[in-house]
Amino acid sequence: MANADAFVVIYGTTEPVQKLRQISVGSLSFLYSQDGLRRISWQGTELVRAIAWPIRDENWGTYPAVIVDERVEHGDRFEARLRFTVGDGRLECDLAIRATASGELAADLTMTPRGGAFSTNRAGFTVLHPIKGVAGQPLRVTHPDGSAEETSFPERIQPDQPVKNIRGLAYCVGVQSVEIGFEGEIFEMEDQRNWSDASYKTYCVPLVHPFTYDIVEPVRQSVRITLSGSGRIGSDGAQSDPVSVNATSRAAPKIGLALESGWLPSGAMPELGASAILLRTAPDADDLPQLARFCAGFDEVDLEIVLPDDLPVSAGLAKIATALAAEGVAPSRVIALREAYLGSHQPAGPWPEGLTPNEMFGAVRTAFPGALVGGGMMTNFTELNRCRPDTTRCDYITHGLTPLVHAGDDLSVLETLEALPQIFASAGALAHGRPYRLGLASIGMRTNPYGAAVADNPAQIRRTMARVDPRHRGLFGAAFAAGILAATEGSTVEALCLAAPAGPFGLIPEPAAYPQAGYDGKGRAVYPLFHVVREACNLAGHPRLSVEGLPHGTVGFGAQTRDAHRLMLANLSDEQCAVTLPVRAFVLRMDAGTFDDATRNADWLATAPRTQTADIELPPFSVAFVEGTFSSD
User: Fold this and answer.
1) Of 307, 320, 335, whose CA–CA distance to 396 is shortest?
2) Which of 131, 212, 363, 451 is deepest in the core (most CB within 10 A)?
3) Which pLDDT score is estimated for 238?
């Protein structure tokens, strides 16, 4: 397969994969790119997730960097000098990085405006701290006045900044330790798990400052990191024994389809078996009757209502209830929010005037007396965490998921899967025993709470805050969805949506205003994601299975049906891996070799021949569908 074709099959785009250069200087190691340093480790233990230098625009999007000059030297020590510009050359940045075998790493950045003031929402160093081995652990903070305090990284996800006014941080991961010093700006920390990032983030400038500010003269910042400790902990995650497959006390979650204007298929939808449709609409939606007729084909209709801020709440709800009733649709569940609450607000406010989400419950019950009433948000866990629902007055809680808030590269997107169990645990605690139902959990961003709109993506590249992400259409999107399903293990999540019928989050190709590499004019019937969602629908409600002993980067999701144990095993990495089952089973693998068959035939999962084996080779971003009988000992 040609290289460009391989990119399309896996990533849905011909855009090259980000190049990450592995750097080792003595016991210090990290990944280097022109965007940042990743996985900064000492003797194999990750102590700093990343150092980056993003420049944000007024909508919190990241300005693309234009590299002017780059010089890298790697020997007994590592040195890099990088000059780049953003905003059509209006801000020039000079970066210097030095790392030594003694565990010292230094980064210095100078940002100089050219041709006048440069407007930004954030500019300068961002340091990410991992969550594995860190969440809930001690943290020493030094402030600019020289004072120090002993605190800890939050265990549950904190809605506001856990640490402010930072000059230095010190913490340990196992037997290794790190000290970090900051200069040139006021830094503070936020709990990035709110946005599904697998990190805590130390950044500048503080959020109490205006979001958009001007750089009018050169700004200099520096970060100094010292790593130390002896002895290696952990393992490389390689599998040496067969995996174990065990029954759990929970059921596999129910699977719905998300729907809103523009997401209806142009023709018949292939049989999927989704348990519900999750319709988002508004009183002024011209196509509400058409959407309602599509919803009438589902056993359950869950409703998300967005009300214009200037429209009386009762009148808006009544209009939608009447329109749905005219098509014979009686919603099973309803959450309603005023439009202002699709935006994000700091925990301390200011908050929009008018009815709050908790004050909407009564009006919703009046308009939809036969429906359960939801609390929470239609955007991210962040917004739910900052505006917590009164669970004494609602029947369930909900929120959505996207990994594209802070970064769009493959590694960052995949890292967000690490944070999902902690999001589910924190949201489950906020539910106080009420049912917990996820809305749309997707790569692309459905709604941008942090700016005026989601980002356009006409070139179909990896981009933060973009609604249309090309990876959704590739094997990457299918494997990522399997990762979301696997992350729900042990949680109270009872239902979720992984896609829509058509449109930017669709399961089937439809003509679009943007190019769809590998699909336009190819006669394909479905995206690879279709088969993952279809199998998840088949498993929904059945006793869930847990798969233990998988190699690093591989996830498993499955359930025990009446006839067999069924699993989905996904490789969420760009390297081939192998899984050994405890016994031989029937296996069907969706990978680059079967991509054509899988995307041309909606019934591929039921009709394609399977191989009976106990040894499964998983190429990058492949998904293996497994059916067999496994011991639960």
Assistant:
1) 335
2) 131
3) 54
Element (H, E) at 249: strand 244-251
Q: Quote the pLDDT of residue 209.
A: 77
Which of 435, 314, 440 is closest to 365 using CA atoms? 314
Amino acid (1-letter code) at residue 224: R
Q: How many CB atoms lie within 10 A of CB 21?
A: 12
For the four alpha carbons of 204, 208, 210 and 212, in that order, the dihedral sign comes to: positive
Nearest Cα residue to 435 out of 389, 402, 484, 401: 389
What is the C-alpha separation between 585 and 610, in angstroms, rounded? 9
Do the Cβ atoms of 191 and 242 come closer than 8 Å?
A: no
Weakly modelled stretches of the chain, pLDDT under 50 = 1, 633
**Residue 421 burial (CB count, 10 A):** 16
| 3-state SS class at 387 | coil
Distance CA 407, CA 404 (A): 6
SS3 content of the chain, % helix, strand, coil (to 5): 20, 35, 45
For 287, the token pair is 């196509």
Closest CA to 285 of 257, 314, 324, 313: 324
Residue 495 near residue 256, CB atoms below 8 Å: yes
Longest dimension (CA), the chain: 75
The answer to whether the CB of 205 falls within 8 A of the CB of 165 is: no
Query: Smallest Cα–Cα separation from 444: which of 502, 409, 401, 507?
Result: 401
Paired sense of beta strands 213-215 and 396-401, if any: unpaired
The pLDDT value recorded for residue 601 is 97
Q: Do the Cβ atoms of 109 and 94 come closer than 8 Å?
A: yes
* Token pair of 195 as six digits: 């946005």
Please list, in sequence order, all residues whose beta carbon lies within 8 angstroms of the beta carbon of residue 62, skipping any fewer than 6 positions away: 54, 55, 56, 407, 408, 464
**Cα end-to-end distance, the chain, whole Å:** 43
Please give the distance of CA 57 from its chain centroid, rounded to a whole number: 21
Q: Is 115 exposed, middle or buried (0-12, 13-18, 19+ CB in 10 A)?
A: exposed
H/E stretch holding 497 reads strand 493-497
Q: Is the peptide bond before 373 cis (omega within 30 degrees of 0)?
A: no
Which residues, at least 6 apart from 173, have a Cβ–Cβ distance to it below 8 Å? 45, 46, 47, 130, 132, 133, 134, 137
Question: What does the pLDDT read at residue 348?
Answer: 82
Instruction: In whole angstroms, give the CA distance from residue 523 to residue 599.
Output: 9
Identify the sign of the CA torsion 147, 149, 153, 155.
negative
Q: How far apart are CA 466 and CA 498, in angstroms?
A: 17
- In sign, the C-alpha dihedral spanning 384, 385, 390, 396 is positive
pLDDT digits (tens, 9 = 90+) for 294-316: 999 899 999 999 999 999 999 99
Beta partners for residue 351, in sequence order: none
